Amino acid sequence: MIKNLIRIALGAFMLLAGIGHLTYARETFQAQVPDWIPLSKDFVVLASGVVEILLGLSMIFLVKQKKYAGLALAIFFVLVFPGNISQYLEHRDGFGLDTDTRRLVRLLFQPVLIFLALYSTDASKLFKKH
What we know:
globular, 0% strand, 5 helices
């Protein structure tokens, strides 16, 4: 029961984040795109927003494939982590992260998100031998 609640909450969080990427928070999300990415920041924000919406929907509705959805979400959280590091190192404000302390706390929360994505979907069972 608790795993399902976490899975659905993560899915809803991803849906909201994805919608934000495409609409009201589009410029704010650009603060997390590192300068070394060789694409326009707007494109990266829009593309990641679409991916977040798809991941969110997958976490909520693909119950029979939840292990794969959780693994995909965990991988996504790993892939966007450099953006969070960049935001911290370059002292970029965004989402109320307007101090180094707040940005550091955000960095420390990333492993929690990865854990929750794997835990709530039993994705670790994909790696166990039968």
